[in-house]
Specification:
With 82 residues, this protein is an alpha+beta fold. The chain has helices spanning 17-22, 48-51, 59-81, and strands spanning 30-36, 39-45. The protein is elongated and about 65 Å long.
């Protein structure tokens, strides 16, 4: 079951501690409110520092994709010059 919070007179909401701990939210964390058909989603935003190394397990796949995009761009530039 979901957690419940109350909107205060200053339009503030306290995120329940269980949710804060699970998503590692702390003072200064950023969240985004996303509207969907069913209501609102609260999406935690990660800082660049928190994202560092996240691609480690997929680095070869990422580099392969980057190289493919570079090849495609070179081919497009070559065709534009012709």
């Amino acid at each position: 079951m979901g957690q419940i919070a109350t909107v205060t007179s200053k339009s503030m909401v306290t995120i329940p501690s269980k949710i804060r701990k699970k998503y590692r939210l702390h003072q200064g964390s950023k969240v985004e409110f996303v509207e969907v058909d069913e209501g609102l989603l609260l999406v935690p935003l990660k800082s660049l520092r928190e994202l560092r190394g996240i691609d480690k397990d997929h680095s070869q796949l990422i580099m392969s994709g980057v190289k493919e995009l570079e090849r495609e761009r070179r081919d497009e530039a070559r065709r534009e010059r012709e």
